Amino acid sequence: MCDTLDEGQETGEFCGQRAKWLHQTPTDRSNTPTLIGLHHLLILSGFKWIISDPGPSLEWIDRLDKTIRPHSQVCAITSGHMNRAQVRRFSSRLVSVAPATSIQLTLDLTKIDMTVQAGRKILIE
């Protein structure tokens, strides 16, 4: 399990200290298939208001990619922080995003203007 908390922020963080730890841990166990668990979403979800296109605030995702890329024993990554299940690829690995245990997001992938309150339903109760 790798901590991605950035105190007081909604997005995740993966600092140099965490990168060093995550690089060393698989190195010490290079023959052991490894699953990395994260809290924060690191893939584009299709929900623009959840995670935008990569930019300066998402540098942690690039740092994570560079850290795990050389470790072939890292088979998959799990993450949460999204109220809908998704499966994608990241850094040549399978990423499984866990759904919420309560309210789910509606699957509405139509274009959204982030500057206008649309009044669309975003949660399924």
Keyphrases for this structure?
Transcription Regulator spoIIAA, 2 helices, alpha/beta, four-stranded mixed beta sheet, single chain, 19% strand, 125 residues, two-stranded antiparallel ribbon
Question: Would you write up a description of this structure?
Answer:
The protein has 125 residues and is α/β, with parallel strands linked by helices. The chain has one domain: 2-Layer Sandwich (Transcription Regulator spoIIAA). It contains 2 helices and 6 strands. Strands 1-2-4-3 form a 4-stranded mixed sheet, with no helix packed on it. Strands 5-6 form a two-stranded antiparallel ribbon. The two termini are 30 Å apart. The model is unreliable at 52-56 (pLDDT under 50).
Strand content: 15-25%
Give the CA-CA distance, first to last residue: 30 Å
What level of helicity do the residues show?
A: 10-25%
Structural class estimated from helices and strands? alpha/beta
Please give the domain count: 1
How would you describe the shape? elongated
CATH topology: Transcription Regulator spoIIAA
CATH class: Alpha Beta
Report the total helices: 2
Give a quick account of the main beta sheet: strands, pairing sense, barrel closure: 4 strands, mixed
State the total count of DSSP E strands: 6
Taking pLDDT < 50 over at least 5 consecutive residues as the criterion, the unreliable ranges are 52-56
